[in-house]
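Hi R.,

Here's the input for the NAP complex you asked about:
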Amino acid sequence: MNGKPVAVITGASRGIGRAITLSIAAEKYDIVAIARSLDSEGMETLGVEVEKLGSDFFPIGLDISCTSCHVEVVRNILDRYGRIDLLVNNAGVAPLQRNDLLELTEESYDRVMNINLKGPLFFTQKIAKEMIWLKSKIQDYKPKIIFITSISATIASTNRGEYCISKAGLSMVAQLFAERLTGEGILVYEVRPGIIETNMTARVKEKYDKIIEEGTVRQKRWGLPADVARAVASLARGDWDFSSGAVFEVSGGLNIRSI
Ligand code: NAP
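And here is the predicted structure with NAP in place:
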């Protein structure tokens, strides 16, 4: 069994997931990095950077929406390390095309919901069961699960309704697991990013530049993957060990309501 804690991070190859992976490696976790494809430059360079930080790196190719693939992935992780201490459910997608709600297609709805909601729900279910079992096997074992949702869990964008629905659902998934697992000694958190500069937002950059400039984001700047990663690292480090079920907004004040 691994002496070091082990973190599983989905969507690790770029953007927010990559920054989270590096911040968690800096907290001395060994890293299981999941992305759909292993053949990306992102994954290769990530492995080098993680190992430079003194952590082991285990990349896994998994489409998170493939729920029948989850059992084998979890078995491979446990065969290698014998433990999972932290799960960060970060993988997610935007709709391929932004369409008005009245033109929302079932195809896009199914794609987004399967990746953003169904996949993380059932992946977490498998890992949570293993964490419960591991509690009796590992001394000083303090497992944690983090869901990366979005301000879209509560803010309506009618040109990407399926994304908002998926993140609102994932927010409830976080509450449900917090309710079910906290008594088992597993802490569960939701981290809710605002507008963050990544591939996902690159194609709507001008629109968001304007929103930020106008002050809707009160801190008047783009969020960076590192902003989200710092919050996740703080949770992983145990700074918030009396806050299971809490929601952490990382949105530069986009969450502030006023009239
Ligand atoms: P990104 O740059 O597009 O990265 C997405 C990551 O998820 C990549 O590593 C991607 O890798 C992986 N991924 C996508 N589909 C996957 C699948 N089916 N199975 C496994 N991995 C998959 O996006 P990001 O902006 O960093 O977003 C990360 C998370 O933060 C998402 O859940 C997103 O909804 C959320 N978020 C983002 C923002 C923002 O403004 N950027 C705001 C709020 C919330 P591969 O494509 O190689 O698989």
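One thing worth noting: The longest helix spans residues 106-135.

Cheers,
M.
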